[in-house]
Amino acid sequence: MADDREESLEKRRAQLGAELATKRAEAGVEQASEAQAEVSRKGYAQAMKLSSEFIAAIVVGAVLGYLLDRFVGTAPWGLIVLLLLGFCAGVLNVLRSAGVVAHPLDDQDDKK
Question: Where are the membrane-spanning stretches (predicted)?
Answer without folding.
Answer: 50-68, 74-95
